[in-house]
Amino acid sequence: MKPERCMIITIDGPSASGKSTLARELAKQSGISYLNTGATYRAAAIKAMREGIDLADESEARKVAKRLDIEFIPPTESNPERVLLDGEDITDEVLSPEVSRAASIFSRHRCVREKIVGLQRKIAKRIFKTQTELADEQELCGVVLEGRDTGTVVFPDADIKIFLTASAEERARRRLIDYNLPESELENLKAEIEARDRRDIERDVSPLVPAEDARLVNNSEMTIEETVQRVLELINSKT
Ligand code: DC
Hints:
This protein is an alpha/beta fold. The protein has helices at 19-29, 37-50, 58-66, 97-106, 110-134, 150-154, 168-178, 186-202, 224-238, and strands at 6-12, 31-36, 70-73, 82-85, 88-89, 141-147, 160-165, 215-218. The site of 2'-deoxycytidine-5'-monophosphate (DC) has 14 residues, from helix 2 and helix 4.
């Protein structure tokens, strides 16, 4: 029998708001696995970079988008998550700051987004099916998609939508720790984060906005565990 508490959850929000950490923690604490949609845009950007195209050129982007083959494999108890591009494992490469900058430019093309959204739906449905088959009848299970437009565009009918945010200052502090940088870099990082926010919010296609029915969670003054508990409360109140 299908478990009753299986759902599609979306978590959108600006960069460094803690979406990936939250999705990973939810996966550790429940039968809810995840798809990191940012990783799919990063994988696409790697293909474009390898082909040496001008990332901002729409017609070049269309040619690359047509041939995109991306897989996201969520972690299991024995294996970490993996990102595949044309069958090649690029999990470590997607994390570089250079790829991050390229993804920010390449993800603005409508043709790229349409292709990737199709891939994301296919991957998320497969993860959902696996989690449903693995779960006990009463268990909370399903898939979280985390990104910028997962509740507005990818799954507008998701069972629950979260918009996760934090102040630019706090997000810059988190990046400082992630990249092991000195305190003197804080203002630079904050400026970079604010510029990234503007690009995400102001782009024509799928801008970063909360879905009308999203629940807003500002975790500027919350620990990771408090954020996880808050989101689990929201999920449980829905079931
Ligand atoms: O979350 P991230 O930093 O890994 O995302 C990489 C880039 O992809 C970022 O510039 C925004 C873009 N992105 C997007 O446009 N839509 C998504 N759903 C996820 C990421």
